[in-house]
């Protein structure tokens, strides 16, 4: 169970490498099927940055329309009996005080009262005071960290901005992000920093990991670069480079920081012994986890402006329904019958694997039928 009752209050089990409620593994193993346990809301399409690796960059706007009432969002959440996690993303969710007051804070209050785990994705570049009033209600404050220094941040964060941004302005935001992460971590906030592995970041991953540790982040998430939206034209690293980068990181990591490898492009069914060796190593190492892909296995994304529901906030699968007319669990069951779900929802319990992320599989294994493969290793003796 993920929570217990103490009087009338719900006490959630602390997040740890042994308990990651966003991972669909637990439900799939216990129930024998995937269930909708997570909902992600895209609450804004505004952002003060235009990062070159942004997987939703083309959705960003300068002026935003009117969102659906938060009561509509909560009413749909109420219908999901299996709900365990609530994620909030954008754009930059904190950029508009109105969005914070009218959408984010009511959602966080609802989740707290129901004992649901919460995550908010922020670039953390706004003044610290913009976070302090509500951040205590968030279980995970998720940030991106793909930079060696302020100069890198300036180049990457304003790559798609459309006009020149002074170097000093970029440096100011970078240092504010770092200072905010340190201050919030010191105050007890669970800050999780994500790095996307690319030709630019992979040679510097050890230093970036040390920076994440110095900021006080409790977790460092390492993901592939998703070839979507702004990042569609960026170069992907080879699987050999990806594998070597992970080994290097693990060899030189700070063991006090939880490393989470998400949407890992290596699988226990691989015919390559090096892939299977890496899979085993990551499951043996202390304070390291491999998260099975939540998107479409236990989570849906909701656009709070249109009401459209999709598998992920940066996928290519068209909307599956709309919360103005459909229940979320109905939409999720509709997705489970979708051809793309059937193609990728394989399951090898002995290796703790629920199959690949759609974007990653299409990028690295376009001709592989994962339904015809089987794990060639077992973690049962670990």
Automatic annotation (TrEMBL):
<keyword id="KW-0408">Iron</keyword>
<keyword id="KW-0949">S-adenosyl-L-methionine</keyword>
<dbReference type="InterPro" id="IPR031004">
    <property type="entry name" value="rSAM_YfkAB"/>
</dbReference>
<dbReference type="InterPro" id="IPR058240">
    <property type="entry name" value="rSAM_sf"/>
</dbReference>
<dbReference type="InterPro" id="IPR014866">
    <property type="entry name" value="YfkB"/>
</dbReference>
<dbReference type="InterPro" id="IPR007197">
    <property type="entry name" value="rSAM"/>
</dbReference>
<dbReference type="GO" id="GO:0051539">
    <property type="term" value="F:4 iron, 4 sulfur cluster binding"/>
</dbReference>
<dbReference type="Pfam" id="PF04055">
    <property type="entry name" value="Radical_SAM"/>
</dbReference>
<dbReference type="Pfam" id="PF08756">
    <property type="entry name" value="YfkB"/>
</dbReference>
<keyword id="KW-0479">Metal-binding</keyword>
<keyword id="KW-0004">4Fe-4S</keyword>
<protein>
    <submittedName>
        <fullName>Radical SAM/CxCxxxxC motif protein YfkAB</fullName>
    </submittedName>
</protein>
<dbReference type="InterPro" id="IPR013785">
    <property type="entry name" value="Aldolase_TIM"/>
</dbReference>
<dbReference type="GO" id="GO:0046872">
    <property type="term" value="F:metal ion binding"/>
</dbReference>
<dbReference type="GO" id="GO:0003824">
    <property type="term" value="F:catalytic activity"/>
</dbReference>
<feature type="domain" description="Radical SAM core">
    <location>
        <begin position="31"/>
        <end position="260"/>
    </location>
</feature>
<keyword id="KW-0411">Iron-sulfur</keyword>
């Amino acid at each position: 169970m993920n929570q217990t009752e103490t009087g009338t209050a719900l006490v959630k089990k602390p997040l740890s490498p042994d308990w990651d409620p966003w991972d669909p593994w637990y439900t799939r193993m216990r129930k024998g099927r995937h269930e909708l346990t997570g909902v992600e809301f895209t609450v804004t399409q505004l952002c003060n940055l235009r990062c070159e690796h942004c997987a939703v960059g083309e959705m960003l706007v300068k002026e935003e329309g009117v969102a659906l009432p938060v009561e509509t969002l909560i009413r749909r959440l109420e219908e999901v009996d299996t709900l365990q996690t609530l994620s909030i993303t954008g754009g930059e969710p904190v950029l508009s005080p109105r969005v914070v007051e009218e959408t984010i804070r009511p959602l966080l209050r609802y989740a707290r009262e129901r004992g649901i785990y919460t995550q908010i994705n922020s670039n953390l570049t706004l003044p610290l005071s913009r976070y302090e009033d509500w951040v205590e209600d968030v279980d995970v404050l998720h940030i991106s960290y793909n930079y060696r220094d302020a100069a890198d941040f300036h180049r990457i964060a304003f790559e798609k901005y459309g006009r020149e941004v002074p170097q000093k302005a970029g440096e100011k935001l970078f240092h504010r992000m770092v200072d905010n992460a340190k201050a919030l971590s010191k105050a007890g906030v669970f800050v999780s920093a994500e790095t996307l592995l690319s030709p630019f970041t992979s040679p510097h991953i050890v230093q970036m990991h040390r920076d994440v540790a110095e900021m006080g982040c409790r977790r460092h998430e390492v993901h592939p670069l998703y070839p979507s939206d702004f990042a569609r034209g960026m170069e992907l690293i080879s699987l050999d480079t990806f594998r070597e980068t992970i080994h290097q990181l693990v060899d030189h990591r700070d063991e006090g920081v939880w490393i989470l490898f998400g949407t890992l492009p290596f699988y226990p069914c691989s015919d390559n012994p090096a892939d299977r060796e890496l899979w085993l190593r990551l499951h043996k190492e202390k304070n390291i986890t491999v998260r099975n892909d939540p998107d479409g296995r236990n989570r849906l994304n909701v656009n709070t402006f249109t009401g459209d529901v999709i598998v992920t906030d940066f996928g290519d699968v068209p909307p599956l329904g709309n919360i103005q007319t459909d229940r979320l669990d109905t939409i999720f069951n509709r997705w489970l019958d979708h051809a793309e779900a059937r193609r990728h929802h394989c399951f090898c319990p002995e290796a703790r694997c629920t199959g690949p992320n759609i974007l990653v599989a299409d990028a690295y294994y376009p001709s592989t039928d994962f339904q015809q493969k089987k794990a060639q290793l077992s973690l049962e003796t670990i």
